Each structure stands twice: as C-alpha cells, then as structure tokens.
Amino acid sequence: MQFAKFDIGLFLREHWQRKPLLIRNPWTDWTNPLEPDELAGLACESAVESRLVLRAGDGWSLEHGPVPEARFATLGAEPWTLLVQAVDHHAADVTALIEPFRFIPNWRIDDVMVSYATDGGGVGPHFDQYDVFLIQGLGRRRWRVGAVCDEETQLLPHDDLRLLDHFEATEEWVLEPGDILYLPPRFAHDGVAVGDDCMTYSIGFRAPSRSELIAAWCDDALADLPEDDRYADPGLPLQDNPGEISAQALDRLHAMIAERLMDREAFARTFGRHSSTRRYPDIDWRPDEPMEIAELRARLEQGAALSRNPASRFSFVAHAADALSLFVDGQCFECRGDAAAFARSLCAADRVEAGPDLTDDALATIRALCNQGSIAFDEED
C-alpha cells in the first residue's frame, strides 16, 4: 500500500515532533491487512507480547498475555481492548504498512502494534514518549487530543496503567477505515471504539533517552579500557592543604573521561549496535542449517533475491563513497566496495537482488547475515 495524496515535505516541516495532524484516507486503495481472528491467534502465542485492557465502570484492569483462547469467550459485554505488539514481525501485510513511512530513518522505527476493541473499548487517557501514526484499519474510533504532558503531569494511582488523572480535550475526531492520526511525543490522547470490531494500527517511532545513550556508551567504553590506563601526575606540585582536590587534578581527571567519551567514531559504532538491536533479541531466527559460501554463490547465480527479516533492524554509517559500517541486529559489519553497495541497497529496501558477480568480502557479509537470521532467500525463489 502506498499514499495517493500526502505532502511529506510539508508534514516534516510543520508537524513532525511539533503538532498533531489528522490525515483523511491518503491511500491509493485501503484494505485492512489483518483479520480480528488472526490478531487473537497471535495473542495466544507465548512468543508474542500482548495485553488485555478491560474497563468496568470507572475502573481499569490489565491482563498480560499470552491470552488463553478460552478467555475471549468469557469477556462479556463490558468494553475491552486487545493490544498485540510487533505484529509486523509475524504478518507480511502488516509489515508492508511501514513502507510508506520510510521517510523517517530506519533507526527511528520501532514496530507496529495492533489493537482490537469492542464498543467503548480503549486504554484510557494517557501520553507516550514517542511519535506515532495511528491508522484506523477496521470500524471507527473517536480520538480526543489534549495538552502536552511531562513528568510532572498527575497520573491516576494504578499498578499497571499510566492513566492521566485529569484529561481535557482540545481537539476531537472520529476516524474511519484508512484515516491516520499523527501524534508527536507527550500529547495527551484518548481513543475510544465507536461500535464493535474496531482495529487500529499504531506505527511507533523510538526516541532514545539521554540516560539510555549514556548507559550504552559507557558500557562499551568501559569494556575497551585497559587496566593500566590510570591517572598520573608527574611533577606533582606541593599543595598548601593536602585536603584540597586541586583544579589541576580535576582538569586531568576530567580530561581522562572526556577524551574517551568524545571519540565520535567509537560512539557511532556503539549507537549503531545499540539502535539495531532487535526488540525481542531472545527469539532465535537463525536457519536450521547454516549457509555455506558455495550454496550462497549458486543461489545468487540463479537470480534468487534476498529479503530482510521483519524482526531485524538495518542501518549504516557512511565513512566514504565506497565504505560504511553496516549495523544489523546489534552487530557491526565493516563494508567496502560491492559489499558497501549491497549494504546500502539492503537498508533501503525489504528485498534485494544482489547479483552473481560479488567479491569474497561481499559474499562473507551476506553469509553472516543469513546465518544470524537477518536475511533469507525469498521462499518463492
């Protein structure tokens, strides 16, 4: 699916991370990509993250998945919502929803969460720390949007849900199938199903916190430091008071830290690995049998194409026209020449035809990516 009418440049200039935007059905031909029963089936699987949010009067409750299949028959008439995370990892038609939004860099894209709600169902007024496009897939949902929130915003006392203590809407819309609502971070919002069979696709975008960046960077920096890299002060001057930590000592100590932390190339490698780590790294996507170079070369000579694993994350940092660092699933691959050209193509498209005339370096990179489960030959090939 692609957009028939949507001004990306105008959106980035005026709305991205600034203000909400309602986009009335911009698709060439909208079709709901997942049936409610398929979503419920995913929620029953242990490897899939899911939640049930139920509302009874003014009270809210949360149940974590996997959801027993029999549970759906006992939910009753009270409003409820099923939320399933990272559905794009499991359903190709849902994965395809991300493609029109690739004007946002790969490393910012998180996943596609899908929700199903009965009449009156929702998750309550809240705010998120990330950008999101809310696509109405099936049925109708009323969205109310309020003010920008922060860490001082009062929340209701609840063990599991971060619901706003006070919510006052400033804008309100009812979304029909194909409509999209864009929300920047921290805008208060509340979505309520209008009628049954309400499905919403939430394409979320990551924004690392300063604390996450510092933690990841420091962990990597510490791992590379030798034990004998220590403070030294030859020519130590005599101090008037031995209890003082002198300005000269502080300058040297601070420089020891700043010199390491200001290494931009090392930070780029750390961030590339950190940002490309899979959302669910414990799931093993490796093939049953490792790919060998001879088999790989033969498949490529036959014209077979390679496809990305929807659960994998791909990005790169360019060093020169023909050299880059490719980051996939927390791993770094240094690429030059045709390996770099392949890496650029792989980051730009879900499916790549690598061609038969590749160097040994390029083949080694492709083989490593196949064997860690990040890419695979198309089944139809």
Task: Please give a quick description of this structure.
With 381 residues, the chain is of the alpha+beta class. It has helices spanning 8-14, 36-43, 92-95, 210-223, 247-261, 264-275, 293-301, 338-348, 360-371; strands at 21-23, 50-56, 59-64, 80-84, 109-117, 131-138, 141-148, 171-175, 180-183, 187-193, 198-205, 306-308, 314-320, 323-328, 331-336, 351-352, 375-377.
3D structure, described in words:
- The protein folds into 3 domains: 8-205, Jelly Rolls (Sandwich), CATH 2.60.120; 210-230 and 246-266, no CATH class; 293-377, Malonyl-Coenzyme A Acyl Carrier Protein, domain 2, CATH 3.40.366.30.
- Helix content is 24%, strand content 25%.
- It has helices spanning 8-14, 36-43, 92-95, 210-223, 247-261, 264-275, 293-301, 338-348, 360-371; strands at residues 21-23, 50-56, 59-64, 80-84, 109-117, 131-138, 141-148, 171-175, 180-183, 187-193, 198-205, 306-308, 314-320, 323-328, 331-336, 351-352, 375-377.
- The mean pLDDT is 94.
Q: What is CATH's topology name of the largest domain? A: Jelly Rolls
For the record, what CATH class of the largest domain applies?
A: Mainly Beta
What integer value in Å does the Rg equal?
25 Å
- Looking across the biggest beta sheet, what order are the strands in? 1-9-6-11-5-4-2-3
Q: Could you name the CATH homologous superfamily of the largest domain? A: Cupin
SS content category: alpha+beta
What is the architecture of the largest domain at the second tier of CATH? Sandwich
For the report, how would you describe the main beta sheet? 8 strands, antiparallel
Shape annotation: globular
Helix content: 10-25%
How many structurally independent domains? 3
Described by its quaternary structure, the protein is single chain
Output mean pLDDT: 94
Cofactor: Fe(2+)
Protein name: Transcription factor jumonji JmjC
GO molecular function: 2-oxoglutarate-dependent dioxygenase activity; metal ion binding
Organism: Sphingobium cloacae
